Amino acid sequence: MKKLVNSLFKEYYHHRMKRIQRYMDDPHSVQFTVWKQLIETAKNTEWGKKYDFKSLKNPQQFSERVPIQDYESLKPFIERMMNGERDVLWHNEVRWYSKSSGTTSDKSKFIPVSTENLKQCHIRGTWDTMAFFYHQRPDARQFECKSLLMGGSLSPYPPHPRTIFGDVSAIMIEHMPWVARPFVTPDFETALMADFGEKIERMARITSQEKDLVMIGGVPTWTVVLFRKILELTGANNMLEVWPNLQGYIHGGVSFTPYRKQFESFLPSDKISFQEIYNASEGYMAAQNDFSEDGMVLLLENGIYYEFLPMGEWEKEFPKAIPLGEVEVGKTYAIVISTNGGLWRYTPGDTVTFLSKYPYKIKVSGRTKQFVNAFGEEVMVENTDKAIAMTCNEIEATVSDYTVAPIYFKGSGKGGHEWLIEFAKAPNDMPRFNRLLDQNLQKINSDYEAKRYRGIALEQLSLHTVPSGTFNEWLKSKGKYTSQSKVPRLSNDRKYVEDILGFLGERV
Questions:
Q1: Which end of the chain is more exposed for a tag (fewer CB within 10 A), N or C?
Q2: Using CA atoms, how far apart are residues 210 and 508, in angstroms rounded to an integer?
Q3: Residue 464's pLDDT is what?
Q4: For the range 399-403, what are the long-range contacts, defined as Cβ-Cβ under 8 Å and sequence gap of 24 or more?
Q5: Is residue 173 helix, strand or coil?
Q6: Domain boundaries along the sequence of the chain
Q7: Distance (Å, rounded) from C-alpha 129 to C-alpha 29?
Q8: DSSP β-ladder status, 416-425 and 462-465
Q9: How far apart are CA 128 and CA 126, in angstroms?
Q10: Cβ 404 vs Cβ 385: under 8 Å
Q11: Do the beta carbons of residue 365 and residue 351 sit within 8 Å?
């Protein structure tokens, strides 16, 4: 019976791939249709009336009339929606909100998840991801065996308990189509537990008994925590001794580059497929369609209209975005989205680099607020992730997590970068690792190389190792210990580095 169900899904995914191929071949007409649907649906909302959506004829008029938005500009509207007001940014009442934990600041973002956004964006994005997986893996058995999902938790909004908020993963699990429910583990009660530490323990006990598990989905940082707990419980040498039928790991949230070597150790088989996705609180935006090459296909038919901010526009008071048709391969842009959840020309803060057109394929290169450019070096997360991976490959080492901040000029002294690194496997020669990391970052980033030339402007980076578990414990101290929480890789000030060093000092 299970094989029959799986074969039926294979047929569905085959037909879905044909539809996806149509918008890969004809992206701009599909995006125009999405834009028209968004404008038509929201024309009678408060926002739609404010900007006279009824009179809009094309996306150019839309971009000229509606300013670029960030969370602070939309926050008053979202707060009213959370208190039960209808037809504000989106039509009808929106009851579900994704709590974004993209940063470790004390402020949380609450992103509207309308019925359309949930079904036509987040859930459809999951189906599209599986369509790509089954297309690449004809032997896929997701609907014959079990898949492990790592989710967050949900809570009622105290001022208006009818409103529910939580991690987007938890909202998706809560609304998972009935047909998929028999094929996931752990049970929903465990998957939606609020205490993440207890959840990891319980998930480890339950899933370590699932011999027919074929797929895992989750943020790499927390998947590593789960893997270690399961190996501790079972005494196994690697995860394939626990799950011998495993076929794939679907990951997103942070770059996989620094973690790949670690995962290849956990999953020592060339039969394991690693698939990257870009599923943010704001929407399910991209998924890897070809496991043999980097990059994710933009999902252009899932209720999101895309625009892009060139790097020179990021810090401007009134930035100008360009449409999809004007992007250039190899260039980095901040993403701008209008969604079927009521976000209008909204900047989530992510930066993407285009790898190709037809299809439009991207890689997530960092965050507009996560970079180090204190001395004109313009170091992005993509640079540091790659430098870490290169260095670990040259020296036997594995990095669990890291963060970087500038060291400012003092008196006649020179500047530099300070790295806090937590190792899963520390190198035998730490000074050599330090030198190689600095050299590899110079190879990757010519601006950093120029500032490092003969140490004229910048000294060699300063590396400090922190004890195992430091970053998780620090996140926990900030109330950010969830499946979606991430340590900021880069900062153009010393806020995070000083806070972590202070946290370590308090524990000594």
A1: C
A2: 40
A3: 93
A4: 399/258, 399/423, 399/424, 400/221, 400/224, 400/262, 400/424, 400/468, 400/471, 401/221, 401/471, 401/487, 402/258, 402/487, 402/489, 403/471, 403/487, 403/488, 403/489, 403/490, 403/491, 403/496, 403/497, 403/500
A5: helix
A6: 371-507
A7: 22
A8: parallel
A9: 5
A10: no
A11: yes
Q: Is the pLDDT of residue 104 over 50?
A: no
Return d(Cα 134, Cα 131) in angstroms, integer.
Answer: 5
pLDDT tens-digit readout, 232-279: 999 999 999 999 999 999 998 777 887 888 899 999 999 999 999 999
Strand duo 213-217 + 160-166: pairing: unpaired
Q: Say which amino acid occupies 270.
A: D
Pairing mode, strands 332-339 and 248-251: unpaired
Q: Which CATH code for domain 371-507?
A: 3.30.300
**Which run of H or E residues covers position 282?**
none
Cα 196 to Cα 191: distance, rounded to the nearest angstrom: 10
Q: How many CB atoms lie within 10 A of CB 455?
A: 11
Confidence category of residue 508, pLDDT binned at 50, 70, 90 = very low
Q: CA-CA distance, 237 to 242, in Å (whole number)? A: 9
How far is the CA of 78 from the CAs of 85, 225, 439, in angstroms? Answer: 9, 34, 46
DSSP string, 189-201: HHHT-S-HHHHHH
Q: Is the pLDDT of residue 506 over 70?
A: no
**Alpha helix stretches (DSSP H) within 26-110:** 27-42, 46-50, 59-65, 71-82
For residue 115, pLDDT beyond 80: yes
DSSP string, 7-35: HHHHHHHHHHHHHHHHHHHSHHHHHHHHH
Contacts of 33 (CB under 8 A, 6+ apart): none
DSSP state of 494: S
Dig out the tokens for 69 from the structure.
């938005």
Q: Can you read off the two tokens belonging to residue 464? A: 């400090």
What is the spatial distance between Cα 439 and Cα 362, in angstroms, rounded to a whole number? 27
**Among all chains, which residue has been given the structure tokens 């207890």?**
198
Which amino acid appears at position 353 of this protein? T
CB-based burial label for 43 (10 Å; 0-12, 13-18, 19+): middle
Q: Is 54 helix (H, G, I), strand (E, B) or coil?
A: helix
Distance CA 52, CA 32 (A): 18
Contact 171, 149 (CB under 8 A): no
